[in-house]
Specification:
The longest helix has 22 residues. The chain is an alpha+beta fold. It has a six-stranded mixed sheet with strand order 4-3-7-2-1-11, with no helix packed on it. Strands 16-17-18-20-19 form a five-stranded mixed sheet, covered by helices on one side. A four-stranded antiparallel sheet has the order 8-9-15-12, covered by helices on one side. The protein has a domain of about 160 residues.
Length: about 425
């Protein structure tokens, strides 16, 4: 593959028997141009039918060439999961621009040649043989592949023991220097490493670019083929304010946990929504009062409304993020109560990470519930799943705050240390109980 920030020029070889029509993601079809395939007589134009290209692949396989209008795709789609531009830097997963047949599971390998000053980075893992600018992944991961970046970006690296975080910065419109960005990411990596005992993912790509002026900082994580995070920094983010940011820590918690299917997004989003401020309060980045104030303000958005069918069926924004966080808080309190403080939701997270599964690995929800309940020696997760996920089961938040000794007043909270579960409240934001 050769490219600059305008077009990708792709030449691809397919294995014998790859006879299915070639395609890219449906939304990206209109940006594929000049598809040809090699034959004895030279290069022949491929026939397009309804957004797919017919290419004969016989016993010897086949070779194709085509262009992909990358810059036009980024300007037109302007979407993080397909293609998005920041100045001359374009972020687009390979699933957007790589033509492929419906082949059986195997290996994908591609090499990138660039026109300076363009660079290329990808969440996909570098080739096993160490070839320069060459990447590999399972073909099973291609339809949901993680981010790739092309353009004149800045590049840095963060080390955390054996883990490596590759940092890519698009400077266009960004109110942060490269050093500011690295410190931002490093702070989140260090906080997670302190919480887990280490940062457990060997290689992660983090891309930072300017967000839209009217929007706050946003993040997104993709994992198929290798973990990658895209952070779009809000206009008000500066080097002085990154310490208060939660987005990077939230997204990196996605990286260290296994993926769940979309219908279970309430749990895959709920865990980092709840755990992220715990990580930061234990790292000294925020005060316990901030943690509880945010929960007092946010958790009511996660309560079931009229017609709610439970977290598994009601996929509103509030139920997904705050409903999932509410599930985690209720589980944390219940686990601590039942085990007299010997276990907590921390043990659920630690046990899950200890399996070695991260965002590249897809779990069904049953496995996560089982791992978590075994780690705590309870049935709390399974019980709450029945009452809050399969049914709309509500939570008496005022009663819970009273028991925990959390008193909200305007934009502040105070604590009642005489409350029956004050010890639980202190444990949630207290130091790590586990001795790594």
């Amino acid at each position: 593959m050769r490219g600059n920030q305008e077009d990708l020029l792709v030449e691809a070889d397919f294995a014998p028997g790859s006879s299915d029509p070639l395609r890219v993601d449906e939304d990206a079809t209109r940006f594929v141009r000049d598809v040809t395939y090699a034959s004895k007589g030279g290069w022949v134009g491929a026939q397009e039918r309804a957004g797919e290209w017919m290419v004969p692949c016989h016993a010897a396989g086949c070779r194709i060439r085509y262009r992909f209008a990358l810059r036009e795709a980024a300007r037109t789609m302007d979407d993080a999961e397909t293609a998005i531009a920041s100045g001359d830097v374009v972020v687009a997963p390979p699933s957007t621009w790589l033509l492929r047949p419906g082949i059986a599971p195997g290996r994908l390998r591609f090499h990138v040649s660039l026109t300076p000053p363009a660079r290329f980075a990808a969440g996909m893992r570098p080739a096993r043989d160490g070839s320069s600018n060459t990447f590999e992944a399972s073909t099973a991961n291609l339809d949901d592949s993680s981010f790739a970046v092309l353009g004149p970006f800045l590049e840095d690296e963060i080390r955390s023991a054996a883990a490596r975080v590759e940092v890519v910065v698009s400077p266009h419109g960004l109110s942060l220097s490269e050093t500011d960005v690295v410190v931002w990411i490093q702070t989140a990596v260090d906080a997670i490493a302190a919480y887990l005992g280490r940062f457990p993912v060997d290689r992660t790509l983090v891309v930072v670019q300017a967000g839209r002026p009217e929007r706050p900082t946003r993040g997104e994580t993709l994992g198929a083929g290798g973990p990658a995070v895209l952070v779009r920094a809000g206009q008000g983010v500066t080097g002085a304010t990154t310490r208060d940011d939660w987005v990077v820590t939230h997204e990196l918690l996605h990286v260290v946990m296994p993926s769940l299917s979309r219908e279970h997004a309430w749990l895959s989003e709920g865990v980092p929504t709840y755990v992220e401020p715990i990580v930061r309060v234990r790292a000294g980045l925020i005060a316990p009062e901030k943690f509880w104030q945010d929960l007092v303000e946010g958790l009511p958005q996660g309560l079931p409304q009229r017609g709610d069918e439970g977290l598994e069926q009601t996929h509103t924004w509030g139920r997904t993020y705050w409903g999932g966080a509410l599930f985690c808080l209720v589980a944390d309190v219940a686990i601590r109560e039942r085990t007299s403080g010997a276990r907590s939701l921390d043990d659920v997270v630690w046990a899950t990470v200890a399996t070695g599964a991260d965002v590249e690995v897809r779990w069904d929800i049953e496995r996560l519930l089982d791992v978590g309940d075994r780690a705590t020696g309870t049935t709390v997760l399974r019980d709450l799943y029945r009452t809050m996920a399969l049914a709309p089961g509500t939570v008496d938040l005022p009663g819970l705050w009273l028991r925990l000794g959390v008193r909200g007043s305007g934009d502040t909270v105070t604590f009642d240390d005489a409350a029956p579960l004050a010890w639980v409240r202190r444990g949630i934001t207290g130091p790590n109980r586990r001795n790594f």
